[in-house]
Specification:
The complex is a heterodimer. Chain A is mainly alpha-helical. Chain A has 2 domains: 1-105, RNA polymerase sigma factor, region 2, helix turn helix motif (Rna Polymerase Sigma Factor, Chain: A), CATH 1.10.1740.10; 113-196, Arc Repressor Mutant, subunit A. Chain A contains 9 helices and no strands. The longest helix of chain A has 25 residues, at 171-195. Chain B is mostly helical. Chain B is 66% helix and 0% strand. Chain B has 5 helices and no strands. Classes of the chains: A mainly alpha, B mainly alpha. Chain A binds chain B through residues 28, 30, 32, 35-36, 39-40, 43-44, 47-48, 51-52, 57, 60-61, 64-65, 68-69, 72-73, 75-76, 128, 131-133, 135-136, 139, 150-151, 153-155, 157, 160, 175-176, 178-179, 182-183, 185-186, 189-190, 193, and chain B through 1, 4, 6-9, 11-12, 14-16, 18-26, 28, 31-32, 34-36, 38-40, 42, 44-45.
Chain lengths: 196, 113
């Protein structure tokens, strides 16, 4: 009988965690390339989470960058017994939320009814872009916490427990947020498929 | 697409892929380079700097405590009954409480002679 699939995954997670703890220790000691490895590893997820909160890609990159630098300064506070990702993403989530609060004039543009309500399907050339735009706008309609929860769960593959750490909310609330976000977004995707 | 089960614990791969593409941030190398350029300017708090900061705070706190203690001790001393105790000169200058006692002593001294 084959090993349960969770065992290699858990082992890999442990190795990754140990590896990251080493990288953090080296970064704290002033080893910038070690910090660079962490930045490379988490740049994608940090930018996606920030974009889910802020909408605007430039703002999202600024927030992700601020978070990375803030994490560098706070690295000594990181508890190496815990996974690094949720610790970093909590800083990213806070940075994005702060930036969103500070942002005064620039707001998410009003929803295009044609896009969100399943209007005529665009030509193939712009098909993917249109779907992406629809999804981003649908995400923007969701409460901020719900957006982060669904992105962290369905896009980044974090567990409910890890997302609870990132967002500072109970695990049950994370489940609920993911469920409600999915319900909204799946309707949109289903409409899109039916049109195709 | 199936209706989702409430609180499904598995990631939705289709939705995840679509969202990942929608939120794709683009050039990862440029972002990393930008962060690392700024990281070079960040000064990490070294242990001696942290200690120095705490030492400064500690010295300031000790000064405040010493001043406060001195103030309270001084106030207590000034208000205590010991401060009202007469000095030697007060006793010598002050008129005797029982004038007769001195005369008795003198008389006994003279009588012995």
């Amino acid at each position: 009988m084959a090993d349960p699939p969770s065992q290699p995954t858990q082992q890999a997670a442990r190795i990754a965690q140990q590896d990251e703890a080493d990288l953090v220790a080296r970064a704290v000691a002033g080893d910038r390339p070690a910090f660079g490895v962490l930045v490379e590893r988490y740049a994608g997820v940090a930018r996606r989470v920030a974009r889910a909160v802020l909408g605007n890609p430039e703002d999202a990159d600024d927030a992700a960058q601020d978070a990375m630098l803030s994490a560098l300064v706070k690295l000594e506070q990181y508890d190496a017994r815990r996974p690094f990702g949720p610790w970093l993403l909590r800083i990213v989530a806070n940075a994005a939320t702060d930036r969103r609060r500070r942002r005064s004039v620039r707001r998410v543009e009003p929803l295009d009814v044609g896009l969100t309500a399943g209007g005529p399907r665009p030509d193939t050339a712009t098909e993917r872009r249109a779907l992406n735009e629809r999804l981003r706008q649908a995400l923007a309609e969701l409460p901020e916490r719900r957006r982060m929860a669904v992105v962290l769960f369905d896009v980044e593959g974090y567990s409910h427990g890890e997302i609870a750490t990132v967002l500072g909310i109970p695990e049950g609330t994370v489940r609920s947020e993911v469920f409600h976000a999915r319900r909204r977004l799946r309707v949109l995707l289903a409409d899109w498929k039916e049109e195709g | 697409m199936k209706d989702p089960l409430p609180f499904d614990h598995r990631p939705d791969l289709v939705l995840g892929r679509a969202l990942r593409e929608a939120l794709d941030p683009g050039d990862a190398q440029a972002f990393t380079a930008r962060v690392m350029a700024l990281a070079g300017q960040v000064r990490l708090p070294s242990w001696d700097a942290v200690l120095a900061r705490w030492a400064r705070t500690g010295v300031a706190a000790a000064l405040v405590v010493a001043l406060a203690a001195g103030y309270f001790v001084g106030r207590t001393t000034a208000a205590s009954p010991a401060a009202a105790r007469p000095t030697v000169s007060d006793v010598l200058i002050a008129p005797p409480a029982h004038p007769g006692e001195v005369e008795v002593v003198l008389a006994s001294v003279i009588g012995n002679n």
